[in-house]
Amino acid sequence: MPFFKNTPFVSASNIPIYHQLYDYLRATILAGQIKRGTRLPSTRALADELGVSRNTVLSAYDQLFAEGYLEAVGGKGTFVTHTLPEALLLPGKARRGGQQPVKRSHALSERARTLLATPTMPSSPFAQRTNQAFETGIPALNQFPYELWAKLLSRQAHGLHPNRLMYQHVAGYRPLREAIADHVILARQVRCTPEQVIIVSGSQGGLYLAARVLLNPGDEVWIEDPGYLGARRALLAAGARLVPIPVDGDGLNVDVGIRQSPQARMAYLTPSHQFPLGVTLSLRRRLDLLAWAKRAGAYILEDDYDSEFRFAGRPLAALQGLDDSESVIYVGTFSKVLFPALRLGYVIVPPDLMDAFLAFRASTDYHPPILEQVALTDFITEGHFTRHIRRMRTLYATRRWMLLDALQDSPLEMDASEAGMHLVGWLPAGVPDQVAAQHATEHQVRVLPISTFAMENQMRGGLVLGYAAVDEPEIQRGAEQLLRALDWLS
């Protein structure tokens, strides 16, 4: 066959001869030099023609058989397949020669269709930058102790016992659960034991787990309005019927919730630092909420996403610490304190629910990767976690003050929340925040309109401005650009 003449094999190459032959055959097939359906020489004949061993040709043919380029036809020999593997990777229409895709009346579940119609947290329109004014929900990634973290990972990876490579306990790495329990008891006044802690893939994994375990399709759930879109999606994925409850200066309005849905199955909220408004649930409402949950036999899903960062006095105690009826499921995360890609969080569950939570957990992802869990355990128990929080608390307080100072002459009425990683700037009455946010985007400034997070509560337009990940020069640049973007309001 002419295409085997002068085949370029290099015996001195680091690449084995069989692999050179495989590469050559594959390339000529894909280039169309060897047509589909062509019969190839026998392994013995080709070996003689090329002056190589028959095993060399066998190895090359075996690889091409395995990848779908060749097929054996009984009694006739070896042929190039009519449908090459690359053809299967083409878009459906091209692969089928223009045929219309099969229509299925029930291709997606009702929940999937609902989620497709539900907004997600808006993604940045800019290239991935860790210092973009005013990205929301991102910590100061350039301040994380990467070298220390790398040493902890390396140390654990080198000393990883074979037993650690087996499936681990479905609740997560026991020493990490102990370290988390010790931390939240001291820092957040949570009441728990390590046996109540389940390690999950970030707070989103915790919200999803709790919703799936505790809710039946159609169950009513109170949700803050405006509120966190990730929670909305987790609850909808469980088939919940959401009951939006307005948020004011004292947090979620419990009285409105009781009037609208007294027999709701669950209430989701961010009581320590409401997202996105930044307010704190008052003590009176905390007690009223707990009393309602006890009467109604309902559960409270407490999302404590960034409560470590409070700049006036001690961080407020968690709602869970006031609970005397085991109604609260507490969700925490390391995404805001350390870095989002870590994907580790935790759920603290009342003892009588643990078996159900663990049974459901075992049916999903079982447990997060073990190496990150053991490294995080060292990071906490050796004191690095507490030191990092203190450093970031000081840094974020400075950046918050700088942002407020830089925008003091803007048309925005800044809501100077003394906690968290973002602020809200309220627009003049009647100004649509979606329009203001678009103007900011055109000036290379990243802000989120409050209306994005609202379901029914049509409140005054406002912009969410994150500052935790934004260094001082970028705060100044971003503020100047935002002022230019809002010139039309003057």
Explain this structure to me?
The protein has helices at residues 17-30, 43-50, 54-67, 92-95, 110-116, 146-158, 174-188, 202-214, 229-237, 254-260, 283-296, 354-362, 370-381, 384-406, 433-442, 472-485; strands at residues 39-40, 70-73, 77-80, 197-200, 220-225, 241-248, 251-252, 266-269, 299-303, 328-333, 345-348, 413-415, 422-426, 448-449, 462-466. It starts with 16 loop residues before the first helix and ends in a 5-residue tail after the last helix. The relative contact order is 0.12. The protein is 38% helix and 13% strand. Strands 4-11-10-9-8-5-6-7 form an eight-stranded mixed sheet, sandwiched between helices. It is α/β, with parallel strands linked by helices and 490 residues long.
Domain module tally:
3
Major sheet description:
8 strands, mixed
Order of the strands making up the biggest sheet: 4-11-10-9-8-5-6-7
The low-confidence runs, each spanning 5 or more residues with pLDDT under 50, are none
Distinct helical segment count: 16
Oligomer: single chain
Indicate the mean pLDDT: 88
Q: Tell me, what is the CATH class of the largest domain?
A: Alpha Beta
Strand pairing plus helix content: what structural class?
alpha/beta
Distance between the amino and carboxyl termini: 80 Å
Please count the beta strands (DSSP E, at least 2 residues each).
Answer: 15
CATH topology of the largest domain: Aspartate Aminotransferase, domain 2
- Tell me the fraction of residues in β-strands, as a range: 5-15%
Fraction in helix = 25-40%
Overall, the morphology is elongated
CATH architecture of the largest domain: 3-Layer(aba) Sandwich
Give the full name of the CATH homologous superfamily of the largest domain: Type I PLP-dependent aspartate aminotransferase-like (Major domain)
How large is the radius of gyration? 30 Å
